[in-house]
Amino acid sequence: METLYSNGIWMAEALQLKTRNYEDFWLIATHMGDPKAAFLLVFPLVFYLHRRTGIAIIWVATISEWLNLVFKWILFGERPYWWIGESRLFVKNRPQLQQFQSTCETGPGSPSGHAMVTAAVWWVVVSSLASFIHTRSGSKVLAAVPYLLYTVLLGVLGLSRIFILAHFPHQVIAGILAGLILGVFLNRTVPECRPLLFHVRTSMGLLLGTLIIHALLEKAGLNLSWSISLAKRWCSKPEWVRMDTTPFSSLTRDAGALLGLGLAQFWKPGGWTLPWVPKTLCLALSSMALYHISRFPLPTIPPVLFYTLFFLKYVVVPQVVMVMVPGTVHLLTAKAKQD
Length: 339
Known about the structure:
Blueprint: H1 2-18, H2 23-32, H3 35-47, H4 51-75, H5 80-87, H6 113-137, H7 140-163, H8 169-186, H9 196-219, H10 226-234, H11 247-267, H12 276-295, H13 303-338
Helix pairs in contact: 1-5, 2-7, 3-4, 3-12, 3-13, 4-6, 4-8, 4-11, 6-7, 6-8, 7-8, 9-11, 11-13, 12-13
């Protein structure tokens, strides 16, 4: 593994040196590939275009990110930004590398969560888009364009993760392959119109199942907090180590979003039928609301309070997109027609 890791470090150095002028581009790319972007950016945009695909985004994002958490606990993957110091292989010939605010994630590195969730989520989007294009045009060439863009997207995201020292190349590749497989499979099992009890059971199953796995691994003598201590030790700036990048943050986000999806479908099964102009207004209002929700600061002490509030934050996300905003717009437009 040392050879694999070392080659990854030198690749990251070459990428940083040769593409330093595109730093902002790489940072934007890695930000867009953050798993939370699937909930806060991709979900509302896709939902107002096609309801079933929007619901699939939440479903695929939650399950793929949860599985990524379990894989990381089992595989114990290193991250480049701490492995450079821990390995002590570069004392005499230290690579010229720079860390960024997005670098200092606290979970293990394998497989890449950004690559895995993005590959799964965007497979749902591009396969739906390709099917729509083929149905309308009958052209297989045009229908292949979304898949080409999908490949470019994953390539850019993967390079961005290597550029900022968050992952080694093999971790990115593993994440993409796992995400692609999950995207294909999970897109066939979307819980559209499933009862609330299904979502409650699944959400609680993710929470309790993860806690059980965590307890069993800890009992087996594995220290699952090892990566957090390394992140704090080797991150360039202490403030870059954030609680919302910890494994339990991912867990509470997934469980909360899944429960929120069930509640949204329970409050208003089938949603509202809105014309394109009100849908555009819904998208704008939802995006503004989710922006402020995501930026809302949460207390980090005690940790249980933080994770509870983080869970509730993502319970709210589907409510805003699927119930609150479209319900309000529907009510206002209906009154306008009556007047």
